[in-house]
Amino acid sequence: MFDKILIANRGEIACRVIRTARRMGIKTVAVHSEADAHAMHVQMADEAVCIGPAPVGESYLRGDVILDVARRTGAQAVHPGYGFLSENAGFAAACAEAGVVFIGPPIEAIRVMGSKAESKRLMANADVPLVPGYHGTDQDFATLSAEAERIGYPVLVKASAGGGGKGMRVVRSASELADAVAGAQREAKAAFGDDSLLLEKYLGRPRHVEIQVFCDTHGNGVYLFERDCSIQRRHQKVIEEAPAPNLPDDIRRRMGEAAVAAAKAVNYVGAGTVEFLYEDGGFYFIEMNTRLQVEHPVTEKITGLDLVEWQLRVAAGAELPLRQDQLTRKGHAFEARLYAEDPQRDFLPAIGKLVRLRPPAENDHVRVDTGVREGDSVTMYYDPMIAKLIVWDEDRDSALRRLRVALAEYEVVGVTTNVGFLGAIAGHPAFRAVEIDTGFIERHRADLLPPPAPVSDKALAAASLSVLLKRREEAQAALRARSDRYSPWLLANGWRLNEENHYDLRLMDGDTVREVTLHFRGDGYEVAVDGGKPMPVTGVSLADGLLTATLDGMRTRATVVQQGLDITVLIDGAVSRLTLDDPSARAAEQEGGSGRLSAPMPGTVVRVLVEAGQSVEAGAPLMLLEAMKMEHTIKAPAAGTVSAVNFAAGDQVSEGVDLLVLDIAEG
């Protein structure tokens, strides 16, 4: 076994590998960019070395620098995690040349399976069922167009290299193909350095079922059952579960055996995942991921195994710890991916400081894999995943109930997240009834992403009470600094001579002014929202952002976090955002005109589609912005004339800057 390994990754997966290595008595070396100097994985590792500036091309993708660190620190092996260099055959070859063990499959397996086109040609020869498609090397548009006609629309345009939904488009008619091909090629080139594409028949309502496989250098290969990853948006997985529900046992076995056959066809070694589409009793090979998957914890929960430990043992030359007939599964597990992103804005990634980050308590049923802590920042440079929430129980219904509870308990303040969206999926009747396929989110979009509702009276009351208690504490602190500690003024309890005292607050709920009046009472308060019936409040306390009170006869707990004028309330699993009304600030915000189109996040301008003086219709695309390796289209909010274009293709832009100015047509 290795004495020391280097982890060529960051964030959650780096922390995950470190935990297993530490348990096995293996020392770890972390590498990090300048932006990650104080990151969680850096502090967890035994040693850490900076490898360059924040951009991944100057740090985490610098295989030569990483191998130099391995040499200098005496690391005997490199664990690549997932993403970055994990499926880079060139890096695996460089490791071999440097005499460092690459904790992953053989170079040729990475190369073959890294090309969706070549892997599918190989699978066809191995009699693994494939979706009808085109996997050829001729990338001329005329060829792609002819092949799309042969396959029949709708077709799926996919990047041959890479994954994660990047470089992927659904094309429903021939008229859409040219734009889809051009966009997919640009995304694929930016993300993977390879713009080659393949085409597949787009199945109507398939499920995405994948098999976890493991092989060693002694000729042994097993499958560790399956995961259902059908809940996706933009072809990226959102919630995964194991085992796949309502899958016939015969299909499970045949799919597992096909996955092992696929792995052995390329002399595979280590952990890998063979992905299939399943529909109407048939299953079709999609691709093989030659690494550990993001969703591997659900397999660990139902098998009781540590897949990272298996990786390390196999890479060190050991045989697989178990054979196929020794593998068993128990119970059901879910994984939900918590991201800093805004579901209401088409899942745009969000950046900012994690002002409050409190996950649910971990136990035998709940596990949290993360690479960030409270006070850390989500930046523009890396994937905005905050954590993976994994739950387990004896059956699917029980596990799903635990998922809903754990999501409701997760507290994240400082960045917009998808926690509420995940909770909506977990609570949806169709999801509970296993009416799932890869189109689930789009089909139920109206249920999962309803228009923002007004902030509840309960949340408004909690916010107002928190503001009042904090101001009272500040007043008491100021008085203590200059008064006798027995002074009656330190009570600050709202008492007034000969009249009732009350406290008025104006809070902004989006663009709506909400008015809250708090009346002081001998045993607490009464709270009236928007002139409504006062609610009695007793037993109020506030500690570390947690407000506890009996509100209108009901014991209530809410987390309230105030940042300047901004207030975030987490109550009953819902997140409400309010702003203390400041008339001067509101006036300043309203200046500048509605025709200024700003960058929704930091990124790079890919294309400018209009020029100054050009007239455009509502919804017309004006500019393409690339952020987090995904393209986002800036569209005209209304008909008008472009009066200014402030950036050109290739320019880097910050969040909030004015990209274009549009003079809105009157009427």
UniProtKB/TrEMBL annotation:
GO molecular function, one term: ligase activity
Sequence ranges assigned to domain ATP-grasp in this UniProt record: 120-316
Obligatory cofactor(s): biotin
Entry keyword annotation includes Transit peptide: yes
SUPFAM superfamilies: Glutathione synthetase ATP-binding domain-like, PreATP-grasp domain, Rudiment single hybrid motif, Single hybrid motif
Domain of life: Bacteria
Stretches assigned to the Biotin carboxylation domain: 1-446
Domain (Lipoyl-binding): residue spans on this chain: 588-663
UniProt entry tagged with the keyword Transit peptide: yes
Keywords, alphabetical: ATP-binding, Biotin, Ligase, Nucleotide-binding, Plasmid, Transit peptide
PROSITE patterns associated with the record: ATP_GRASP, BC, BIOTINYL_LIPOYL, CPSASE_1, CPSASE_2
PANTHER family assigned: CARBOXYLASE:PYRUVATE/ACETYL-COA/PROPIONYL-COA CARBOXYLASE, METHYLCROTONOYL-COA CARBOXYLASE SUBUNIT ALPHA, MITOCHONDRIAL-RELATED
Record NCBIfam families: PRK08591.1
Protein name: 3-methylcrotonyl-CoA carboxylase
